[in-house]
Write the structure tokens for this entry.
Amino acid sequence: MSPQKNITFNDEDAVAPLQELQQAYPDADIYLNGELSIDFPEDVLIPIESNQMVTASLSGSGIKFNYCGLEKASALLREQYAVGTVEVKIVKLSPSMVN
């Protein structure tokens, strides 16, 4: 089973805690679920990718994540302060699945 945790943002830089997560689990795929209020939603440009699941969307003054990869989430949250809690899913492949 994949480890799961929550990260809460209290009007703070949104990228720093995500970078810490990446450093803590360097070989894992990490996904975010949930919604955060951000300071400048108008500055967030979410690329539309055909034939891809929508993993991030804007809603009012917030951004909503649906199994959004950590790298993409970090890029979307660059220079944003966030308030709220997101669920983090950490997927590590076992050595037997890699070979």
